[in-house]
Design goal:
18 helices, 390 residues, disordered N terminus, mainly alpha, 0% strand, globular
């Protein structure tokens, strides 16, 4: 563990962390890239807590572990600034404002979501959300698709996802496949047992996609589901959609596609981590206890992974094996996002107006640099105006 993490933090450092990350958690719209840019401005340029190189090292570490990258950056900064207490304070304060806002909106949604006015608002929001996710796919794809190998891995995941393969299996299979191929190119030769294991495991890709028996919507099942997702999810918060739809919509039937789209809209429109979509879903499934436990489940692994990985950051970043595995996982994440975007688009684009709105929104989000929350708000207003004018 680093000296910073071992030192007893002064109360002033904890107070500074709490004030900074409560502020960022309240105003940080625009997704992980925007959140990280705000953190860089605050902790590197304004407060000079760390230098640019250390900030980039922490960002690289956040990309090497599962979980929400911007939240993990907040946790890393807290750990460097004030040890384990700083880790808890920075992460919790970044999550808390978004969780409370989403929790309140979930309560309003449950009470009023079926009213015509709310339906009209969401009618216009959903096509804009599809456009925003498409933009995220494009931007992330420019980083994730590094070569022909990762392109093939991403395309294969899209095809296998439509065929019903299990999302977690696809993530790890792509990671290991790219890792092995990249190291084979460097001259490494696997033992025969490793090759046989890969061949023997291949049928599990489709077998694991068989429909799971419906589970009752209990608090325990909800918490374990989000703990699982928080423990294995690499990449953007949008990848979360693929896992939620596969289990909570298709397998267990706790949500509908419409409710999932509404959850995405709420998560996009509010500040802070996109993963607070879990707060909204937890409330829909099991009320306030569900909101609290779902939020705990999806974020808790990030705290653990940051704490455990911090001493090994230099070694992990230099490892060709870790690099290859993450290349494959990121390509698979992109493939899952693409597949679920197609499926959600079929639910959101239901007539000429929604199709036209999605097309216009896609052009605007690519060409005009405006916070995505404004596009979501504009879509909601247009949805209401369109329905009032009919």
């Amino acid at each position: 563990m680093s000296d910073e993490a071992k030192a007893s933090p002064p109360r002033a450092a904890l107070g500074e962390l709490a004030r900074l990350f409560l502020k960022l958690g309240t105003i940080a719209f625009g997704g992980p890239a925007a959140h990280i840019a705000m953190m860089e401005q605050e902790v590197v340029r304004r407060r000079r807590w760390i230098d640019h190189q250390r900030f980039l090292d922490l960002l690289g570490a956040a990309n090497l572990i599962p979980g929400p990258n911007s939240t993990e950056m907040a946790i890393h900064i807290g750990l460097v600034r004030a040890g384990w207490k700083g880790l808890v304070v920075a992460g919790a304060c970044f999550i808390l404002p978004a969780m409370l806002i989403v929790w309140a909106l979930a309560a309003i949604y449950v009470k009023y979501g079926s009213l015509p006015e709310a339906s009209w608002l969401l009618y216009g929001v959903k096509p804009v959300i599809i456009a925003i996710v498409v933009q995220a796919l494009w931007m992330l794809g420019r980083t994730a698709i590094k070569n022909t190998l990762t392109l093939i891995a991403g395309a294969a995941v899209i095809v296998l996802s439509f065929l019903g393969a299990n999302e977690i299996v696809l993530l790890f299979a792509a990671g290991f496949a790219v890792m092995f191929v990249e190291n084979l190119r460097r001259g490494w030769r696997p033992p025969q047992t490793a090759l046989w294991a890969i061949v023997a495991g291949a049928p599990a890709l489709t077998a694991s996609g068989a429909a799971a028996p419906a589970e009752p919507a209990t608090l325990t099942a909800l918490t374990l589901f989000f703990l699982k997702i928080g423990s294995i999810l690499f990449g953007s918060g949008y990848v979360l959609l693929a896992f939620i739809r596969a289990d909570l919509v298709e397998h267990w039937h706790w949500l509908t596609d419409r409710q999932l789209l509404d959850a995405i809209a709420i998560g996009q429109f509010t500040p802070g981590p996109v993963f607070t979509t879990a707060t909204f879903i937890g409330y829909l499934v099991a009320g306030s206890p569900g909101a609290l436990l779902a939020t705990f489940g999806i974020f808790f692994p990030a705290f653990v992974f940051v704490w455990l990985s911090s001493p090994f950051i230099p070694k992990i970043r230099r490892s060709p094996w870790a690099s290859g595995f993450l290349d494959g996982v990121n390509a698979a994440s992109l493939g899952l996002m693409a597949a679920v975007t197609w499926q959600l688009g079929r639910a959101a684009l239901i007539d000429g107006f929604t199709i036209a709105l999605a097309v216009v929104a896609a052009v605007l989000v690519f060409r005009v640099k405006v916070n995505s929350a404004w596009w979501v708000l504009a879509g909601g207003i247009l949805g209401v105006l369109w329905n009032l004018g009919r």
